[in-house]
Amino acid sequence: MTYAIMLNSPEETEVFAAAFAELLEPGDLLTLEGDLGAGKTTFTKGLAKGLGVQRMVNSPTFTILKQYSGRLELNHFDVYRLENSDEDIGFDEFFTSEAVSVIEWAKFIEEYLPKERLEITITRQSEQERKVVLNPIGRRYEKLCRELNL
How far apart are CA 29 and CA 31, in angstroms? Predict the structure, then answer.
């Protein structure tokens, strides 16, 4: 079962993600897919706020990973540059940690991802409006989506 919500502005996206972050637990894994400019980093900024991260969050496009401290640690990956790469940079070490991991462009490292995760796809509907679809894989993520009451 998938869950969907329409969000009408970047601010609304951040507010939704911040509220969503309140439900996250150590070790949760979220993957984010969507075209360039769809709102993946905006979603992650809101998530970070909800986790109590004080630092400014931006896309780790050139570094692949940025780590933040808050109520829970946050690993923010942007693996776009790993397309067509077979290099294993030790993802399993991060995915078994107590941090929440958010991975933009996760399809490029599909073979390294744990089976259970929450797949989030953000689609641009108009200049401001976004459709966010959550696809939970595993009991933990099904429970998480039910808690959102979408």
Answer: 7
